[in-house]
Amino acid sequence: MKLVLQEVSKAFGEKKIVKQTSFVFEQGKIYGLLGRNGVGKTTLFNCIAKDVWIDQGEIYLEEAGKKISYDEQDIGYVHTMPHLPEFMTGYEFVRFFIDVNQAKVQNPLPPNAYLEQVGIKSADQHKLIRDYSHGMKNKLQMICVILTEPKVLLLDEPLTSFDVVASYEMKKLILNLKMQTIIVFSTHILQLAQDLCDEIVLLHNHGLQEIKDQDIHAEDFENEIIQLLSDEGGE
Ligand SMILES: Nc1ncnc2c1ncn2[C@@H]1O[C@H](COP(=O)(O)OP(=O)(O)OP(=O)(O)O)[C@@H](O)[C@H]1O
């Protein structure tokens, strides 16, 4: 499976995000998306998730050389700021989520099994989501991803709110999903990108630029990225 961006353009008025950008993300790899603040990483994710329309070009999935259409249901999107029903408890939310996704969730386990899997202890499972920490809310979003096994997983700076143990657990979960999912991960933490990603992609000068994988662990990688992102290009 591949996620293909073909000649994609997106702008908000005068603010260009991408301009005739093409890129192919492949299943079995974790891609780290790096770019300066405000360059458009979240917008690009929103375009892939079909939350925001692109101005030109096409975004599609490809399997065995054939274009296949997809909808929002095929995309797992873990937002920086989670969108969750704050009036429910974590347990109620997972139960509700399983109910409304019955068609997709094969042989579901009880809600507490998923909550424990991401480290939400029984004492917290029946608390209102309103009272959850940012990291706990992100963990709930990860449960939705685990349950629906989306074709594409977009992670918008998700690990920044996790403590060291939770971050380690999340990395393991993400790595477990790697073989069956196309994973694109946006982060400002270079070390995290180096640890977790197979390829680094820069969103820069309205385009996507791949960094060759052998460079990721090179000693001067950080300097290389800083230099590339400091180059303002044309427009
Ligand atoms: N709905 C919108 N309407 C108009 N402008 C928008 C909209 N959404 C985002 N923008 C603008 O598009 C640009 C890119 O924003 P975006 O949030 O995608 O950047 P980002 O790379 O994710 O930033 P950061 O790294 O700071 O989180 C910003 O200038 C932002 O103000």
TrEMBL record:
Residues 3-230 form the ABC transporter domain. SMART domains: AAA (SM00382). The keyword Transport applies. CDD domains: ABC_DR_subfamily_A (cd03230). SUPFAM superfamilies: P-loop containing nucleoside triphosphate hydrolases (SSF52540). Keywords: ATP-binding, Nucleotide-binding, Transport. Pfam families: ABC_tran. This is ABC transporter ATP-binding protein.
